[in-house]
Amino acid sequence: MKLKNSFFYTLRENVRDEELVSSNLLVRAGFIKKSSAGVYMMLPLGLRVMQKIEEIIRQEMDATGCQEVLMPSLIPEEVYVSSGRREGFGSSMFALKDRKGQDYVLGPTHEELFALAAKMKIRSYKDMPFSLYQMQTKFRDEPRPRFGLIRVREFIMKDAYTFDADEAGLDVAYAKQFNAYKNIMDRLHLDYRIVRADTGVMGGLLSEEFQAITPIGEDVLVLCDSCDFASNIEVAPCIPQKPEVKEEEKEMYLEETPNSRTIEEVAEHFHLDAKKFVKTLIYSVDGNPVAVMVRGDRDVNETKLRKMLNATNVELADADTVVRVTDAQVGFAGPIGIKCPVYADEEVLYMQNFIVGANKTGYHYANVNNKDFTITGHGDLRNIMEGDICPKCGGTIEFKHGIEVGNTFKLGTKYSKALDLRYLDSSNQLQDVWMGSYGIGPARAMAALAEQNADENGINWPIEVAPYQVAIVIISTKDEQQVAEAERIYAELTRKGYEVILDDRDERPGVKFKDMELIGIPYRITVGKGIKDGKVEFKARTGEKMDVAVEDIITKVQETIVR
RNA sequence: CGGGAUGUAGCACAGCUUGGUAGUGCACUUGAUUUGGGAUCAAGGGGUCACAGGUUCGAAUCCUGCCAUCCCGACCA
Hints:
By secondary structure, the protein is an alpha+beta fold. It has 14 helices and 29 strands. It is globular and about 95 Å long. The mean pLDDT is 93.
């Protein structure tokens, strides 16, 4: 590409409405441009990176025998009603009506349509296994789009679906996809970890996430310092911390604690550590109030709570509800005399002589023990914390943050049951098909790569996804020899199949260098006054400059960029 | 959806408190000088001050409404 008559621009300053380093760089480098909240234009350079990422994904998908298809975005609402997910997605689905008043949605993910497509083929167990994938636009009306390309409302996703006759078949298909995902992440040069995750609205048996490691990631990854344990915090199991010495149980008493509502304030009042307190949080679980007890320094894990109570919707109760079940202002809830079911985190069962709210405004009970109240149930209901014991090996837990670039699901028979996707087995019995689904967000991968590889000069793309591999900078476009030699090198490299930018703009050298570094071209050939002595300069994006004889430069590129 | 903030030239911002000719830097055009790390000087072009009402002789500025964008929270596949 010759820059002079191309759609190419860069901005010298950050823009106002982007927060992340990576999204600002992508905007400044002219890769993307925000169109509206959570919706982006993909401009020429950005599209090239996207297409390279997509090509790597396609190659790995094709290698597993997966076949590419393309599903519509515009889907009758009925499709999601019949699978039971219309309600699950709720208002995060874009919904619209056609001219006849029929209800449509814009697809947020496509398990249903792939299951319907599979029905066309599957009659008997002999029709499986097979798998399909697509590279297609998804729509999700996020309550709060943010973080550049990370949380958006319209995005391209590669989604794949496997179809098998039984669980053993699904295991094989899942392993193949899982392996392909590892290959993809490796080829993209992402710094990533694979973690266990919640299956969420997708449902099914198992979910694993491919998380790009970066401090700005939205997900908290729970890792162990001494084994390979890796989990999203939402499902990381906790080992209850038992006291080292058993205390003698003391007599409970009521203490006046005016103006002490938060754990910090109450801890201050008693001059005790938060670990000696139990906080009682009132949740609304499918509309019913439920109290949850965790140690004062812990947080309730709502995913675990939802699973334990087999609920669909878990959220903190509003103030009115809290007042109703505790007969007190918010901040004084406790298990004694509360008017709703109480569930305790496992750890609370091992605590002694602790402090809880008294369900009376301005009062707490001290020296409370488990005999002093009754609970409806208990279990692992808290978030694991840094420094906790690894549930797998007993090592120490540490946190990292990640961007969820890919996700694999063992769906099982959830969708085949809902959509009557069945086959005849060898004894002529109708059986449900076993499905798996597998997603990757190429744009998230692009953002994660920019985030992981940016420096003070701009983006530093891995050569496999860089929009161009080599930039040729002409120092003076008024020097005919420089122009002629640069053009010749450009033509030669292009002919040999390299992707090359020729910066033939009438700009000062500094501007061209800065621009090529900002957009992250991995290698640069500079044609300047050295051409009089038959020399050009060769430089890696982050490496040192070196002089190369002009007749050797093609060879130099071929040696450096091995393809 | 709750809380907070911001909308002024392509980009980043000032001006608003105290109403009176719409400004600065970058970018852009022309000329000159420069020419290996975001040049300098000079002269220019470009704005319905988000939008809609209202107050006023007069509104970017005050009032009301509304839309958009961003941040925190809730939510999150």
